[in-house]
Design goal:
single chain, 596 residues, alpha/beta, Rossmann fold, Helix Hairpins, 3 domains, 6-stranded mixed sheet, 21 helices, 20 strands, 42% helix, globular
Length: 596
């Protein structure tokens, strides 16, 4: 077995009274492809900085192979003090490195080398920083969120470049497809300790859930109380990650419906159906065009947006996606064509710059704008403590100031604030930037349950596959084309092969391969198919009753323990209800197949 190029052992680090790392380890060998995962605030970036010798641990050992070249990409690269991007990139080279490679990488990433670092956008700074760490062809490359602020062509180029590099790679990223494509080993950082899986990210979530289930079983045997942090892991990660099969089925149905609508465009029958169901049409854009001087940004584009659509907008940076959004929302007037907006639209927007949160304000006050303890969500009053638990915050955190939150927690709080704003139309511009995987799961769930319409600009391919009913893609020269389905569906309709990614292992399902399928369902499955609907309905009634109690604005201040007890019971009931729904749907699919 080859000696490691980089090895961290028994790393411990505290910030104040918080033990961030408690015996964490990281071993990187030649040509390793390793991803580092864990919830926001778990210490992933800190561990990577210790690996890069940028900060020192309280205790533990760091070994780097003598002569090994190690390069680190920070989330927020600092280009100050350099006259041009080329000077910045070449400063990362050492004696013997090829200076022409710096020029090649800058060009591949869409830069000339003459740009002034002081005037770069976030995406341009990230490209320059990538060129700098890639140029020396390092033995170990440490990348912290390398796809943030990159567009799809740049992400796909980076995937190809990293896949072909000879050195070892350690990745932190929220982009699932990026991780699945590149990783062969996964290190999970959880409650200060590291756990290693000798498989890529596509195998991680199932493995993690099994480890957590085993831990939960041991906890029950020992009759130990669940700690707050472990409660977050149980109900924040595992329960929320398991996608409700019913939601996926609804998404498939919506995509099918959208394909039928696209086939029927211009058909009189469709016009009549729409006219009889007033309020379903959100945007009707016909033949719109827009130019800046001689440059055509949008040409002859038509789009109908109906209530419930989730539209993903994709394309390279600078192609005009934001301009298209402004035209569709009526913020810009087209040079040609027209845009009609539906009646009674309430638009809530999340832009790339993000809203400003007051650092001294409590989380609860940030969500309610200081107006009390209640928020209106989907037309119903919710106690802010209970509502924040939906976004993975504990009641104790709700009273703490915003300034103590990590970057991912701030992003989660902004989402809570956004979805507490009365709206029927969401406009999300790069919503996945700076989110960890758990918060991405949460965002997908909230969008899936959102009763209104969503318009989403994103470069996250997996995210679009999970939420979008249709894609509007920039095809160049001002052309935008609509495709039914998600990102993978768009590639298929274009005739482009879907990028290869590792197969994700699946849990044992009720349905078996056709050759092994019995001629009829067994007694247990037949009985479950009969009783599960009532069990699910009873759980929904119990959840509704408990949520009424939580809506009592005085309950938390009067009896915090009772509030926590009811909140925990609601979380457990929701988890069990989701599992019952999954099982019922799987059994129903088996029944239908057997009958056919």
């Amino acid at each position: 077995m080859a000696s490691p190029l980089l090895h961290l052992t028994d790393i411990k680090l505290s910030f104040g009274n918080t033990q961030l790392l408690d015996g964490a380890e990281l071993s990187v060998g030649p040509r390793d492809r390793l991803c580092l995962v864990g919830r926001n605030g778990s210490g992933k970036s800190t561990l990577l900085k210790i690996a890069a010798a940028m900060i020192e641990a309280d205790s533990g050992n760091r070994f780097a192979q003598p002569g090994a070249t190690i390069r680190y990409l920070a989330q927020e690269p600092d280009l100050s003090g350099y006259a041009s991007t080329r000077e910045y990139v070449e400063a990362g080279l050492v004696e013997g490195d090829d200076p022409n490679r710096a020029f090649y990488l800058l060009g591949s990433l869409g830069l000339t080398g003459d740009e002034n670092p002081a005037t770069l956008s976030g995406g341009e700074a990230r490209r320059a920083a990538l060129a700098r760490v890639l140029a020396p062809r390092p033995d170990v490359l440490l990348l912290d969120e390398p796809t943030n602020h990159l567009d799809l062509p740049a992400i796909e180029w980076l995937e190809s470049e990293l896949a072909g590099m000879a050195g070892a790679l350690v990745l932190i990223s929220h982009d699932r497809l990026f991780l699945e494509t590149l990783s062969r080993t996964t290190v999970w950082l959880d409650r200060g300790r590291s756990h290693r899986l000798e498989k890529g990210f596509s195998h991680f979530e199932l493995w993690r859930d099994e480890k957590l289930a085993e831990e939960e079983l041991q906890r029950h045997k020992l009759e130990r109380r669940i700690a707050e942090e472990e409660h977050w892991v149980r109900y924040g990660v595992t329960a929320r990650r398991k996608r409700n099969v019913g939601r996926l089925e609804r998404l498939r149905g919506m995509r099918t419906e959208r394909r039928e609508q696209l086939r029927s465009l211009g058909n009189v029958k469709m016009e009549a159906a729409e006219g009889g169901t007033g309020g379903t049409k959100v945007i009707d854009a016909k033949g719109i065009a827009f130019s800046y001087g001689a440059r055509e940004i949008v040409q002859d584009f038509s789009l109908r947006v109906h209530r419930g659509n989730r539209i993903g907008v994709v394309g390279p940076n600078g192609v005009g996606k934001t301009t298209l959004l402004k035209l569709l929302l009526g913020e810009l007037q087209p040079d040609k064509g027209n845009v009609k907006l539906g009646q009674g639209l309430q638009i809530a927007q999340l832009d790339q710059s993000r809203a400003t949160l007051h650092p001294e304000q409590s989380l609860a006050a940030a969500v309610t704008d200081g107006s009390g303890d209640m928020v209106m969500v989907a037309g119903k009053p919710r106690h802010v403590m209970n509502y924040l638990q939906d976004f993975l915050f504990t009641p104790q955190q709700a009273r703490t100031p915003v300034k103590v939150l990590s970057g991912g927690e701030r992003a989660r709080l902004l989402l809570a604030k956004l979805f507490a704003t009365p709206s029927n139309f969401l406009v999300l511009d790069e919503p996945t930037n700076d989110l960890d995987l758990e918060t991405l799961d949460l965002l997908e769930e909230v969008i899936a349950d959102y009763p209104g319409t969503a318009l989403i600009v994103s470069h996250d391919r997996d995210f679009l596959d999970r939420v979008a009913t249709q894609i509007v893609a920039a095809e160049g020269d001002g052309r935008f084309v609509e495709y039914a389905g998600g990102y993978a569906d768009m590639l298929m309709q274009r005739g482009v092969p879907e990028p290869a990614k590792a197969k994700t292992p699946k849990k044992q399902a009720v349905e078996r391969p056709r050759k092994d399928r019995p001629a009829k369902m067994n007694f247990n499955d037949t009985h479950a198919l009969k009783v599960l609907p009532e069990k699910i309905a009873a759980a929904e009634r119990e959840i509704a009753g408990l949520e009424e109690k939580l809506a009592d604005a005085a309950l938390y201040s009067r009896d915090p323990a009772k509030f926590a007890e009811i909140s925990g019971k609601v979380a457990m009931l929701r988890t069990q209800k989701d599992a019952d729904e999954e099982r019922w749907l799987a059994l129903e699919m088996v029944r239908e197949q057997l009958e056919s």
